[in-house]
Amino acid sequence: MLFRVHVLFGIFCWLVLDAVLFMPFWVLFWVLLGSVLVDVDSASSKLGRRFKFLSWFFAHRGFLHSLFACVLVSAVFGLLNLWFGFGVFVGWMSHLIMDSLTVQGVGIFWPLGFRLRGFIRSGGWMEDVCFVVLLGLDIVFGVYKFL
């Protein structure tokens, strides 16, 4: 999935969880960070272009696209502040969920070879549909939240 879809799905997850947990608004920043931080292993991603050296150590959709990495990175952020860790966890998981819907899939239980795969091609028309649907949901839930 592309950056824009990960951001919109991260916002959607925050809006849904905020309705139940009543999180501070600033947790959204950590959710968004977590939702895009996962792709730092790709030299062609928005964040990966700034940290190209990391792509030398991590294969794209390898270790960083796993539950183990999600829990590990979230725990590190959680040592600073529990809301930081929770936000990164939510964002990271939102990223993994969306990438698991793609044909490439994700090795969610890394290092085991099992991959969750879907039917959406990254950058394809189905991803555009996901973008439009998520944009609409974010607007509706966002307006409902702030009214």
Describe it.
- It is a single chain.
- With 147 residues, the chain is an all-alpha fold.
- It has one domain (3-141).
- Helix content is 58%, strand content 0%.
- It is built from 5 helices and no strands.
- It has helices spanning 3-21, 27-37, 67-80, 82-100, 125-146.
- Helix 1 (3-21) runs parallel beside helix 5 (125-146).
- The longest helix is centred in the C-terminal third of the chain and has 22 residues, at 125-146.
- The chain is globular, with a radius of gyration of 15 Å.
- The model has no long low-confidence stretch (mean pLDDT 90).
Quick structural overview:
With 147 residues, this protein is mostly helical.
Give a short account of the largest sheet. Answer: none
Strand share of the residues?
under 5%
Low-confidence stretches: none
Structural class based on helices, strands and sheet pairing = mainly alpha
Counting structural domains, the number is 1
Topology as H/E string?
HHHHH
Question: What are the salient characteristics of this protein?
Answer:
58% helix; 5 helices; 147 residues; globular; single chain; mainly alpha
Give the secondary structure arrangement, pairings included.
Layout: H1 3-21, H2 27-37, H3 67-80, H4 82-100, H5 125-146
Helix pairs in contact: 1-2, 1-4, 1-5, 2-4, 3-4
